[in-house]
């Protein structure tokens, strides 16, 4: 059986070669064959160019799809879940509350400083008042005169004599007397 299949293959090959020889003997058929071959080359070249163009377009689209997928994934990662959004809102509220508290603390600090300044002025005022009282007390002890400080437009006061337990009131009009006359009159009252 092996020889028979070899004979059949040989016969087919011989028949094919005979057909080729007949075709090649005819000049027109050779021209048609060459033209067909050229057409096949052109068709192959055109097909290859189209294939390359389609391949490039396919790569462009694949890269655009990949970029779009990346953007989609990035957008998905940027999308915050409701729980995360609530957490961020709470943090924002806490920051706002902290800023509000900071502002309140600053206002309270300003008020505290103002109160300290007023307290210091009040303390100094009380010290000045005590000094004035001591000065007035010393003046009264030395001169036996207690001036009336409520009306600065006139010179008035009381002369106190502790030994006699006597208080005399005095008043001088500054428009009618000079400062020297007023002072002289006060010294005369102290001496008497």
Automatic annotation (TrEMBL):
Keyword Nuclease listed: no
Family annotation (InterPro entries) = SPC24-like (IPR044951)
Give the residues annotated as coiled coil.
Answer: 51-78, 105-135
GO process terms (BP): regulation of chromosome segregation
UniProt-listed Gene3D superfamilies:
Ncd80 complex, Spc24 subunit
Q: Please provide the record's keywords in A-Z order.
A: Coiled coil
The regions listed as transmembrane in this protein's record are: none
The protein's name: Kinetochore protein Spc24
Species assigned in the record: Cannabis sativa
| Phylogenetic placement of the source organism | Eukaryota, Viridiplantae, Streptophyta, Embryophyta, Tracheophyta
């Amino acid at each position: 059986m092996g020889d028979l299949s070899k004979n059949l293959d040989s016969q087919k090959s011989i028949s094919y070669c005979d057909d080729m020889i007949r075709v090649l003997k005819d000049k027109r058929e050779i021209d048609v064959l060459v033209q067909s071959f050229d057409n096949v080359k052109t068709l192959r070249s055109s097909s290859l160019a189209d294939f390359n163009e389609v391949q490039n377009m396919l790569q462009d689209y694949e890269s655009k799809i990949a970029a779009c997928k990346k953007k989609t994934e990035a957008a998905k990662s940027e999308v915050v879940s409701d729980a995360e959004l609530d957490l961020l809102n709470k943090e924002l509220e806490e920051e706002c509350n902290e800023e509000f508290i900071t502002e309140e603390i600053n206002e309270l600090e300003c008020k505290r400083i103002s109160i300290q300044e007023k307290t210091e002025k009040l303390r100094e005022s009380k010290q000045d008042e005590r000094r004035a009282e001591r000065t007035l007390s010393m003046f009264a002890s030395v001169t036996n005169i207690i001036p009336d400080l409520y009306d600065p437009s006139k010179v008035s006061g009381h002369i106190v004599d502790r030994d006699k337990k006597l208080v005399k009131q005095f008043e001088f009009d500054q428009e009618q007397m000079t400062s020297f006359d007023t002072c002289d009159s006060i010294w005369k009252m102290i001496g008497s």
